[in-house]
Design brief:
By secondary structure, the protein is mainly alpha-helical. The chain contains 17 helices and no strands.
């Protein structure tokens, strides 16, 4: 019975996610991502050509990457609020349900592990003398450790005290570091054997503890709700999500950026959009992440062509991802009653987007000053300015018109 319920929920979940995928993987976004991956691959290839001798940094980077990759992927239980009432009598039968949830939750992390190791292997081969066949041992080791991590997350469904779960996470983090170090500094096979020993030992200890605990239903519902909220926040960057309840923070210290805006009819939507950006965690958080990543990649590349390409690509990604801000107040009836022209709304978002994209361009170019010539910095700056003006003046209105049509 529980397996059938799980299958039914997976089917419903997949149907819901597929409905949104067409908005995420649209033609523009996919093309930009392909160019971005190509540029990063080209820079990575050129960097590998400069490596001629053994360097312990390769193994240290491997330990960091392996440990970080193992932290990716949460247990997807698909638990619903009503389960706290209707599933409670079937609590003993839920073991099979969560077993299915664990194995399904392993798919995406396994794919990420495969990609991460495949990308890292040329560096390990060039710097540390590994063979490409060692990739098999690394992948198997990490998948086994990730399965152990998900087993721990299943146990966490029965742990009431947060402090106890933090201790378990810290213990697992230490184990990941040790096993990864064994694989990279001693031998990949030793790391694989270590992962197997950890998995068997943890499963034995977990089975003993599992018997004495009961499921914490409120905690399970809260964790699953937060997991889905993170997914919806990402999708909401591409299209409107009715199920998403946005969160805001006062952030009074940022009022200094809002005070210069004149409080008049013409600036109604400009002020609203600016305040929504400052207070809305999904918009400001996304903007900061993209700016930081762009600055890091530009600094690591240290190439004029790559810097120019990354600047334009990240400016596009930022502008494209912030477009849903235009519809942020559509469900607020009072905005319809404002005695302002309809065109003011479009002009407001164009003005705010131009300021944000220009600011991002300045920060990215600020990094390039340290490794590009004066003329090259001017070319990158001029290109960024022309792109920002073209994006806000021409692409933004047409894209918003297309998004409005899709909503209807």
């Amino acid at each position: 019975m529980m397996i059938e319920i799980w299958k039914q929920r997976v089917k419903q979940h997949q149907k819901k996610m597929m409905k949104y995928l067409k908005y995420i993987f649209n033609d523009h976004f996919v093309i930009v991502c392909l160019f971005l991956v190509g540029a990063m691959g080209y820079a990575y290839s050129n960097y590998l050509k400069t490596l001629t001798s053994y360097d312990v940094k390769g193994q240290l980077i491997g330990v960091i990457v392996f440990t970080v990759v193992l932290s990716i992927g949460k247990l997807a239980t698909l638990i619903q609020p009503a389960d706290a009432v209707f599933m409670l009598p079937k609590e003993k039968a839920m073991e099979e349900y969560f077993k299915q949830a664990k194995w399904r939750s392993l798919w995406l992390p396994s794919f990420i592990i495969l990609v991460a190791v495949a990308v890292l292997m040329p560096l390990l081969v060039a710097m540390s003398g590994f063979a490409f066949f060692d990739m098999f041992y690394f992948v198997m080791m990490l998948i086994i450790l990730k399965e152990t991590d998900l087993n721990a997350q299943v146990i966490n469904l029965k742990i009431k005290e947060t402090s106890e779960w933090i201790k378990i996470r810290l213990l697992l983090f230490g184990i990941y570091l040790i096993v990864s170090s064994l694989a990279l500094f001693i031998n990949p096979i030793v790391g694989l054997v270590g992962a197997v020993v950890v998995a068997v030992s943890y499963r034995f200890l977990a089975n003993q503890k599992n018997v004495a605990l009961t499921y914490q239903w409120e905690k399970m519902i809260k964790d699953e709700t937060n997991r889905m909220k993170r997914i919806y926040q990402f999708i909401n960057l591409f299209t409107d999500i009715p199920a998403l309840k946005g969160s805001v923070k006062r952030r009074a210290y940022l009022d200094v950026f809002l005070n210069p805006i004149q409080k008049n009819h013409k600036n109604v939507f400009y002020y609203l959009y600016a305040r929504a950006f400052v207070r809305g965690t999904e918009y400001s958080g996304l903007y900061i992440r993209l700016v930081v990543i762009a600055m890091l990649l530009s600094g690591l590349g240290q190439s004029f062509i790559l810097s120019l390409f990354l600047t334009v690509v990240f400016l596009y990604l930022t502008g494209f991802q912030l477009l849903p801000l235009y519809f942020h107040f559509d469900n607020l009836s009072l905005t319809v009653l404002y005695p302002v022209k309809k065109n003011n709304k479009l002009q407001a978002i164009k003005k705010l987007m131009l300021i944000l994209m220009m600011s991002e361009g300045v920060l990215i170019i600020g990094v390039s000053v340290f490794y590009l010539s004066f003329i090259e910095v001017l070319i990158v700056g001029a290109s960024a300015t022309i792109f920002n003006l073209g994006f806000c003046q021409f692409y933004l209105p047409s894209r918003i018109t297309k998004m409005i049509k899709l909503q209807h």
